[in-house]
Batch of 3 targets.
Target 1
Amino acid sequence: MNILGQVTVYPTPDPRIQRLVELAYNLWWSWHPEAQALYQEIDPGLWKEVNHNPVKFLRRIDQHKLDRAADDRAYVARYEAVIAAFDAYMHPASTWWGRTYPELHDELMAYFCFEFGLHEALPIYSGGLGILAGDHCKTASDLGLPFVGVGFLYPQGYFEQRIDAEGRQQAIYEKLDFSDVPATAACDANGKEIMISVDVPGRSIYAKIWRFQVGRVPIFLMDTDVAQNALGDRELAARLYGGNQEMRISQEVVLGIGGVRTLKALGLRPTVWHMNEGHAAFLQLERLREYVQDQHLPYAAALWATRADSLFTTHTPVPAGNDAFHFDLMDRFFGGFWGQLGIGREEFLGLGTYDYTWGPQFSMTVLALRTAGRANGVSKLHGEVSRRMWHTLWPEVSLAEVPIGHITNGVHTESWLHPAMASVFDRYLGPTWREHIEEPATWNGIQRIPDAELWAAHETAKQHAVRIIRERTVEHMVSVHRGPAEINAAEQLFDPKALTIGFARRFATYKRAALLFRDQERLKRLLNNPECPVQVVFAGKAHPADEPGKALIQYIYQMSRQAGFAGRVVFVADYDINLARHLVAGVDLWLNTPRRPLEASGTSGQKAGLNGAPNCSVLDGWWVEGYNGTDGWAVGEEREYQDEAAQDEADALSLYHLLEDEIVPRFYRLDANGLPHDWLEIMRAAISSIAPQFSLARMLKEYVTDYYVPAGALGARLGRDDFRAARALAEWQARVVQAWPQVGLHATGPSSCELSVGQSLAVQAELRPGTLRPEDLAVELVYGHAQGDDLGDAITLPMSPGATERTDGQVSYQVNFSSPDSGDFAYGVRVRPHHADLPNRFALHLARWA
């Protein structure tokens, strides 16, 4: 026959279930199992085949199966219940944000991130940063925040990981079909699809904007694979974390500058700007340009306006891990930019200059720290590490007062809680527990759950985890052409009754995945004890350019095939959200062995603890705050080492001791009914302590209270009346900086003395303000425990000026110092610039000590 053309016909849901399409385009379904079940019930095989993607599912489902579901009265009843819950969520009578801040109805928080991990059906994330961003947006939706996300849509996403017969990681990229993902083209007020552009050397880069709806929160992602771009630019954002330095700076120009232009094209006017990691810091340059060019602000006033309402979150605990560019690259990409700001090259480069051990470069983290009024790390320990890392930016400030705070990461509870465990919580925590996740009292009901019910829920999750481990292992065996005997063995891999340890995360060397194998014979005895067998599942991807990380994967894989380890250790390929969700819920113990203090936070262990899997972890990242002596185990000591080999040896010995003498015996201590009461006790402790403290609801409420609301208020204040306050702040800064060399301070107080708790010590100071007014300055006594030439935990006491004026222009100050605690303290007196509109006390990077 003569074929004239081809036609694709897509199925259409019956009117009785037609809102399945609407539901598919809102990722609300991704954290509601009952919504996912509506698709899975129609065709379980297809649901698995499309990787749980309802949009793709609806494009491929057989029309007859859709019609059969519409004729099923029980199915329609379940559908109507889900739709009713969806509608109630999308149009609530009230939200936490509305109840807490009813007056802030014009706020809008813009959250920029390089990646968003929302669901396995949308593989545009690589790991922790993206998963955190996805959870951040989901929780913003739950709390009713006026919130918008901005990032990239990577047509080839992050890579699919395949492991060859020798254990080598292979990176496979497959292009996304946008018709198969829950995305719609973003449009402006006139309904026109939005296309933005940014200028780079010799050309413009264009990006189409796609909208993803995450509950009540939209995320706008840029796609450079459009016809207007040259081939190289079409592939600019094709892959996550790919390419050389020129590609990276191009990506970050598009993310930052293009992201600001995206929101402007959408008619959105954020009142708070949040940079989640330094990749997006160029957005501050675009905002500066807009203030100077469009608002006609002087550069100094524009900089204060930009600082006022912005927040920077750092995730990287080593300077070399932060993006930085050579000055010649900055000259090429921004050669005409500083003129638009009304400043010179040196002042422009000074916004990001950092002296690395290999020489000065333009650091994105420094740019963010110098242009954002507020900054934070992602755990208590990481905040301390970050202040130490970037102390040189505030050389006259004590280490403890470096203006980088911390908010410890958390997880979106409903995205990571296994349905079987959630069902138990529904029965014993009360009908509204999901609305009060971050409140410790919510979790008191954990103690009321009968042992048998809690263990049954965990065993259900464990069976699901074992099933996916077997399925993925069989798929791998087939792909590398193993024989029938090995494939049959893989189908029976792992005993659902044996103690199962999980280690799954990005494979970077500092995470020390191989620490468990330091004494192989000792480990073999532990794994193969016939009375108390142990099995370990590993999973994770290494960055495609990280050869040491890939070598670690190969090592673990090869170990898993050796006698004594085969059948007891397995590496599961292609770690993604789906596998992660099964492992954190289904293993018995979560193992984490980073080299302290290189784990900024980590969240996988929080997800495991939420599901009742205790952590066995080095005291690094979030576990420093999470471990309380009853909810898991601490590997090694809470200290840092100069010798890495000594650290590895000490931590490995500690880990073996914990496993042999505490963890394994406790797990296998069973009653007559086969229940491990002692283990269940630690499961309860893990859930009760970790679930509220490390929920993203707690985390995001802290962001709102500590950063978003104050930043929005300061931004509004500085922007009123044609930025009158910002202009005044810039003028004040110029006056202070010019007069600062003439400011002098002298203080008198004992060089040493002894006090009892409650007794006070009088300290006086004489300030010579020069041409400044006393109110332009703050004189403070600072005390704390001495750490060399610094104070480890600086506490500030404001000093009060005397009532009488002196004819010599000096001002007298005094304070009575006393401490509520005993101990050895050091103290000093300083003066610093003071203004009510500063976003932090040290925004001018100036201080002088008496």
Note: The mean pLDDT is 94.
Target 2
Amino acid sequence: MIPHIRQDYNKALTKEKYEDFLNALNLTHPGAIEFRVAETPVFVPKDFTQKILDACESIVDIITDPGYKELTRNAIPEHLQVPGENEHTHFIAFDFGVCINEKGEYEPQLIEMQGFPTLFAYEVLLDDVCRKKLPIPEGFSCYLNGLDRETYIKELKEIILGSHQPEHVVLLEIFPHQQKTRIDFYCTQDYLGIKPVCITELIKEGRKLFYLNNGVKTPIHRIYNRVIFDDLQQQTAEVQEKGKILFEEVDVEWCPHPNWFYRISKYTLPFIRHPYVPKTYFLNDVKQIPADLENYVLKPLFSFAGQGVVIDVTAADIEKVKDLENWILQRKVKYAEVIQTPDVPAKVEIRMFYFWKEGEARPHATNNLGRMSKGKMIGVRYNKDKEWVGGNCCYFEL
């Protein structure tokens, strides 16, 4: 998006440099990165950064409104309500497509949002290696609001650990060492000292939870939650049975509480009115199917990683839906083919990280990740056998 920066970068990058970069990235935890890492970060000009932040802050206004919990009272499926919900999430991730409007101008458009963690720790490692191995120009940072590597890790640590020692905080996931995002779990352990623990390894005694820490039964006081219930519901009966522990009254603090995964999600999109947020409707509120249905996307509320999304919507697709209240119809956006690559240009999504400390009135932007695509959608399954696609980060012009 900054032509001279892009030209200089592309000219400087060779296949050998890219391979050297990948080797360095994999050195810390060999074999832990299963997803494709793109050949380039995204360089974002100041004015575009400001557009994204304006949109985020407008959405934060809705989330911080005293009536937000009432607004989202139906967001959490009844059978997935977890006791002990706190006043706000600790994390929000906003996904924006880099789009082109009718005037031919680049603008961000919100695709999705989640009150749930993402690759917060891995992006620190990625920035470290990018700066060592790739031709990153001066005057750019992946961090926001004046943060740098040290202050970002410090803030992440304060939020996740709370008032507890690392051995009493766990990163909770389903078979964490099998997850494609496990590199983030290992980086979290490196920077914060907390261990990834499988939900099947939890030990419950009364209202107390424990785990085996190097063979020693250790109390859990706080959970850094990475369990997605949609994933849990696809596990074997034995694993799901172990997962019921999440719905019991236990003496732990959550970071973030699982209910926020549903409150701050696609469910919130129909309530937002902003130029950089596509118009979105609950399907049960759509009294007449739009004549230009080809300009909409149909999405299930309770799914993740793009599962169940219908891009080329027909009236028949809508007629098939039985639980209308659990689906949204979202206006399509036109992704810009904005990143010049050696063959065809790539599309981009930018995920903004927002952190929310206890006691603060609002969350604030801290870091990001970028994803490049040449397929119909962002994601590995749509970009097989392509180059200059995959995950990386964005560098914002200072």
Note: Residues 232 and 240 are 6 Å apart (CA to CA).
Target 3
Amino acid sequence: MEFLKLSRSALYCCSASLLVLPGMVRAQAEPSKPAEQAEQNANPADIIVTAMRSAQRLQDVAMAVTVASGEQLQKFKIFDVKDVQQLAPGLELTNTTGRNNTTTLRGIGFDPDSGNSPAVQVYLNDIPTDAQTVYTAIYDINQIEVLRGPQGLLRGLSAPAGSITIATQRPDFNVTEGYAQATATDRHAYNVQAAVTLPFSDTFAVRVAGLVDGNRINNVSDVNRGGETSRSRTESARITLGWRPSSDFSAYLTYQYLAADNKQFQQVVGAGNTPTVSVFPYLFGAVVPNASPTSGPPLSVTDRGAVEEGVFRLQNSTHVLNLAADYDLGPATLSFIGAHQYTNLTITRDQDVGNAVPGYIESSNVVTPYLVDTAELRLTSNGKTGLGWGIGAFYTKQTGTTVVQQDQTTFLAPYNLSDPILPLVGGATIPLALRIVVPANTQTWSFNGNLHYTTGPLTLTGGVRYSIIKNIQSTDIYFNPLPAGVTANPLSDVASGLYHPVTGGATIDYALSHNLNLYATYGHSYRAGGHGVSTPALISGDLTQTNPEKTDSFEVGIKGSAMDRKINFTLTGYYQKLNNFLSRFTGIYYNVVRFGGLYQSSGFFDFNYNANATIKGVEGSLDLRPNRNIDLGASASYTKARFDNAKIPCNDYAGTGVSNQNGNPAVTGSGDVSYCVVNSRLAEVPDFSLTANGEIRFPTGDYTPFIRGLLTYRPGFFSNSVQYQYQDREMFNLFVGLRGPEGRWELDVFARNLLNQQRITNISGGDATMSTYCGAGYGINPALCNGKGTPYNSGYRTINSMNPREFGLTLSTKW
């Protein structure tokens, strides 16, 4: 029986069900009692962070942390979390398809469609949350912290590359205050956001915030849909209730609603093609596409064109309820964080993104509702010197059932016209539709303990976390009509796993002076392996089962300041070893032949696979504030993240032993897929990256003109996995404006991507194709095929590119 496109799409839907800077500004601490005390003891130029689950000066944290304050996000018009990468070198936040927000940090990438736990875990108000939801709407933010390196102790879920923590603003109990900001651009984008705090008493306060945002996402128009353009609209509202009945207790209850509707077209480049299709009107009762239409016109990067005849649309409706409470018991503080999230994702898409079969829409409709409940309880000693300790318990559970309705029409391969019995041109179709049901249940329990000892300038910290991870997932696939040999019962697959990892770490911090710290850290993280759900039938076990990933990392660093905080600097070096690194390899051609050739299945699939890897790197930052009217900052990162003589699935059509898609799809070697031994990079990112930003103010009485800039640089590099030479990228954003008396209002004009570079940031390994089938399963002699299974080729590679230059205007006010 043929499973040509079935397995690829089934895994996609299954993974959809699993959905998961320097600056010289004053960052606000969270308003718990320890944080308030930290603010009182801090210098006004200090940045206060909660990377270690307590409020500390950034300089005192024995970890590489990049901080973006809410003020910076407003200054640089950061309306999407993915743009935070402009403030953090070594961080890449992308969305290549409109649905899978991908995070890469220190060279370690993560594809949400893999179904694995994230390599970079995202937290909203200290609760782990999926990136698809968190990245959608950013407004009224207190602070974003990018924690670099393995995370396996302080927060509930382990991650090998780092964590991103996002803290929203909380109400003030003493002051009525708020802001409003409106932005519009020449590319039909707008963003309106506002917030206000209402302190009803010194024990009860409310903060209300809201957002309406619209834009053209990737600014791509579809030439086969009358020039229709990508479009996004997001509406969100948040209310936070603050209760502080005494100086020892505080609690914050936050509810956030999100409604997002994204319609995005996949950008392509190439000459297009005239795919081979049949003029024969019927075969087995199936209508054949029109004869010899083209997939579309030639398109370059600057054409910003798409050719799909269907549409990709993602609708996200999310409700999040979050409760955080702290109770100071004297010797220790008891903290609780709990959250309930309900999300419903509806995805409609045309999977023939290159229009390889003109006149045909390979439609897919996915509905993914899921519930996530999370709770954490911590007890932490309050002493700042001597022996301190902390213990905690964490629990999270996610449930939901994904339902997919999908067209899976099979296209027959071209036939030999000289055959006297079946002189047909290929292109006829076998109609097939699928209904795929994927219930999932994932639970994690974890328990942690840590000790820290401070004597004089020396602080030692260490701890462990024990986790119990349980994952149950099944798939039922229903056919309409039923293919030959398939009964009315669904094709079912069940995957489950139970894991008991121990993670944690240790740090040594030595304060050479109040303004200079040295530190060394060790971190150990873990990600559970799993069984691929709905992988191609009878394919080899190494392509269906992955082993757990274990990561060990060593880091040394120095943090310091000079000239009364006018100069701040950091320098970090690190080495990381990943055993059984969980990676994902997309669009891999497979060919399964069993039972002496009686069974054969081929097509393209996205496989999870283990491979060893090593990472070496160095990061540094320098912030300057020579006087009160000039702020300058620069950060750079060099990371060499490479596979370590890893044997991985690849496309090796030419049989050269290296990844390529030259010629017709074929498997090199005796396996079900081709394998390549590589020492190539782990993700499609350059080794080096740099960010720089600055602001110069020109005070003139009550009014202050200013100019600020934000520069990110990514050098070019050659990608072995897609055989493509990426160009260097320089993204420069410029802002010029006027600030009113006491900073109560601000008007500025800006240009994003002032240089108007439109360079490719991601590209597929070959042209987008539509698979074809030829075999005895449909009563056809495979010998009659011209190049068995030769796919229809669209003549286009799918890409993502830098958005073109955009001019905008922002008016904001504070009170």
Note: The chain has one domain: 6-302+310-442+464-735+751-814.
